[in-house]
């Protein structure tokens, strides 16, 4: 399996998409740092004092700023995960590059798992760097004004959820890649990801307005594709406000009013494992 | 150890009941160069891809190197050059070979030596550090052959191995195949370039419209239709009127000075003395008799036409 993992690393690094994404991610982090820096400067001038009312405003702005950064960071990570993994098997079948690999004494399940571990570890590392970059900017550039107060365990928990999101995407991408073409798989996965995120927002709005229909739509979309629940759990772990009655006020649209249940988190893990298991099964039976 | 590296029984791979290969029963002897002949789309590549586990058979069974096809064990000592050779163009030739060497389970030290050897063998020495995207088609085919030879395979499938090569490259590949044969390796050669196959193959199988028409030692197959070229006087009367019934076909092939050359097809190989006796008795002046060595193309066309004839008869009977 190791040669397949290695060649997956080499492919990602060699292909332009990864380099461009890295450059654009750095540009995004730079922009986020500049925005945070200017916001800190403005806030220092505007707020200054430390009354309880102003503390609330600071908390709102700080979580908003970091939540926004994490949200766009997760979108970039997800798009990279989709674009780099949905063609991992399909495009090789289409081009017949896969023929010489599979003609070796290599079981097909090892090929799928090699691709999965290669992609998941690279994307997991990318997500971790993105998360660390955003949080680092928030803490260092945000100083006392915009820095969200977090402890090590919160960071670790949030990072774990943030990193899990592209891994789940890779699991589903492997399934689509082993059963359909690159273009079809890409379209399906982008739509599923879109449903998940829009559903996530609808669920939060449903919780704010106590509208069960909206909440149910969100839950159904999460069941369909549970990527959003991982992002929500990441922000929830970081801002630790699930029990705070003012949580939505302090976190805005990027925060979490309706936290994912433990069952949903187990479902998400189960979803990923089943998708990966199915991809192996489908690929083993498939003609290439 | 079996005498055959490949044995198939009614092996079938069809796509929705169409095309592919159908009911292929054949044996490929160990150490032979087996030429699998057929027109484009006859099912040659489908058969090879089924043997290698890339396609799942719809019926029948097969063993390769003593193991059932589709199993990992069956592919342990097998090399493969696909017809549609495409390699990751972002790798260098050397990196491609290194990855394949790893998949073959070679250690770093082993792979270094083996790669150096195969790169030289296919005439790519000095170019292996370049990216594949900069290779010509012929160079890609050469690096593909190098890949196929990496694991020191017992059985090598070469699917149209000279399709992108120039005449010198083709000659080099033919020489390489002969060298591999001398080392005791079995080569399964897929091609529709019959003249190329003729010089290297000792066994052939002919596939037509997905079905195996015939297979065996090709020199034996070539004697199925014995032919002689007979040069006689032009004024030998009407030669065709005195031909015995065992001459199944005759054709005037050349007229020079006062002599005609006829190509005679006999029903059996041992009829030549009887034919000559009869012609001489009939007053035909014979100047030259040359036993016609049939080309692979002749053999191929004979069997394909025969199969087509049987097919037409069967279709006609079904119609009636």
TrEMBL record, chain A:
The keyword Transport does not apply. The chain crosses the membrane at residues 70-91, 112-135, 155-176, 183-202, 264-283. One of its GO terms (molecular function) is ABC-type transporter activity. Keywords: Membrane, Transmembrane, Transmembrane helix. It comes from the Bacteria. Pfam families: ABC2_membrane_2. GO terms for cellular component: plasma membrane. The keyword Transmembrane helix applies. This is ABC transporter permease. It comes from Brevibacillus fortis.
Automatic annotation (TrEMBL), chain B:
InterPro entries: AAA+_ATPase, ABC_transporter-like_ATP-bd, ABC_transporter-like_CS, P-loop_NTPase. CDD domains: ABC_DR_subfamily_A. Pfam families: ABC_tran. GO terms for molecular function: ATP binding; ATP hydrolysis activity. SMART domains: AAA. PROSITE patterns: ABC_TRANSPORTER_1, ABC_TRANSPORTER_2. This is ABC transporter ATP-binding protein. It comes from Brevibacillus fortis.
